[in-house]
Amino acid sequence: MELFDTHAHLDFTRFDQDRDEVLKRAREAGVINILTVGADINSSRRAVELAEGTPGLAAAVGLHPHDASDFTPDTARELKKLAGREVVKALGETGLDFYYDNSPREQQEQAFRSQLRLAARLELPVIIHSREAEEETLKILQEEGAGLAGVVHCYSSSSGMAKRLVEFGFHLGFTGLITFRKLGWLREIVSQTPPEKILLETDCPYMAPEPKRGKRNEPAYVKYVAETAANCLNLPVEKVAELTTANGQQLFALEDYSRLED
Ligand code: NI
Prior knowledge:
binds nickel (II) ion; single chain
């Protein structure tokens, strides 16, 4: 089985003690690629460094909506500079989070628009975080995102939004949330999504799936997400791994990229 964890935060300090072990367990679980995603400028820099030092690892650079109030013209310049590195395959994560509202909404929208424009200029796919902001996310995507490819990660919005995103050409990234017993409605969305639009991810260190719920998450656990997705799609897990890995490699232009190795 060959899996692709399309959304991990391997630069976070929670992996400082045992990052090599985490990567080893990922390989043993069949993970061949990981996209490690920057959350702010420092995190994006670390993501790039990690990817440059680890075969099979690629990076995304961006500013999370939580920190959108830090977005300045310098941020855009720095992201643009980082995006020129070979290992950077996406812009993000960016988007809107009206659940936590850690940054004022107006600033979240501005930072989101700027990063979408940057992605279009750099011809990179985008990784979008959207929480409690369905209409605003779609509106801004429609205004700024013509021709952009990308994914709404850790998908947990409505089935209506899922349909509209797929119509727009976007992928949906599913995490360990789909394994939670009470979230049958989310599994329903997985089963209704065209398999070619599905990506698997961990969003580690967050979102640990059953049976690891409550623990620190890591890329190896993407296999549990794959198993649940396979049940939803009524396909063998090997087939789902193959399909979703191909989807991710195509979206992030990793077809000829290195793989995690011993
Ligand atoms: Ni994330």
